[in-house]
Amino acid sequence: xxxxxxxxxxxxxxxxxxxxxxxxxxxxxxxxMAACLNPICxxxxxxxxxxxxxxxxxxxxxxELVTGKLLKKxxxxxxxxxxxxxxxxxxxxxxxxxxxxxxxLFYEKLLSR
Length: 113
Known about the structure:
Blueprint: H1 2-14, H2 27-32, H3 38-44, H4 49-73, E1 87-88, E2 92-93, H5 97-111
Antiparallel strand pairs: 1-2
Helix pairs in contact: 4-5
């Protein structure tokens, strides 16, 4: 998913039709933490997609904040959103909320298999 996202960004920002992507090995365990959503998914079963997606968005933002702060402390954070308008300490971009909402619902589908 990270490669798809950064590849899509390369088309939008640099008109790079090869969809080249750039990521970090740190992103593997960070995205892997999505498995931790499974107990939350079970508790939210039967709730509306708006509530479930909202909860997942908050969880993803919290994971991004915690891992971003930890990695920044050690000079290893692979992302920096400082130049984005809606950022928090360069670690979170609040304009990504709709994307995280959809990603959370996507993870829910994967985890419920």
